[in-house]
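Q: Got a minute? One more chain.
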Amino acid sequence: MTATFGVRDMGEVKDFIGMKVMRDRAARVLTLSNPGHVIALLEAFGMSKATPNKTPMVSGAKLAKTGENLLPDGNRRAELVGSLPYLSTTTRPDIALAVGVLSRYMACPEEDHMRAAKGVLQYLRGATRLGVAYGADKPLQGHVDSDWAGDVDARRSTTGFIFTLNGGPVSWGSKRQSTVATSTAEAEYVAAAMATKEALWLRKLLSALGVDGGAVPIGEDNQACLALVNNPEATGRTKHVDVANHMVRDYVARGDVTFYFLPSAEMPADGLTKALPGPASKAFRDAAGVAPDMGMAVGTLEPDPAC
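A: Always. Here it is, folded:
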């Protein structure tokens, strides 16, 4: 780093913008976690003694705007939901989907929306020490997935992608698509285009650091999407697809990214598109590089049952 950039060595880092940095030099593993922020949230919203949940969202749950059972004061919920993105974008990809869904209901929130937000805190209550771990000698690897019309109100699909490097996640996202997809293939193709853009940026960043790993492999679980990616011929059923999404074909042809089939059961990005049951949620965490940190839990909470 010092050979490439002008930096100042301040010694071994222990904390960085609220994140706890822990190293196991013998095992060559580094973990980033944020238990202090989690515990502060639990205390601020009176959830320190709440019963832990096994998942951030109930499997199969579908939030919607019904206009009924409105909260008398939505400011408290807005404060709660607004406190979660920092966690979901730094050390907790396991709550990224839940935070994205909850953020869609900031205006006129209902009681169901508040219960779902508290459900995330209950999940964090049982997993305060989880973070992201790095240590395996593995190159940049991507995975992308999409649900289809999962948003009940707008019938838009959700894109989920995650990129890992050295065994841990370095970039991830769970975002509702801007257009309504008319098929699963289209929804997956739009997601593939978004993942390609992220892969190109990460590839350029690594190149600036002196790392050139070649084409970025990206796992995809939809065969129709892979056919669209690898076949430049347009068909009557895909003429309506926005031309901006076809950029993925160009970068595949140039060798910047490659797409390969990965079964849904092995797809790490699945947990960024839909709420999963307990065992599948744990499998998602493991595949995404989310693991307990190497220290004891911070604060007065009991040890994490999930750990």
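A: Residues 296-307 have pLDDT under 50 and may be disordered.
Q: Perfect, thanks.
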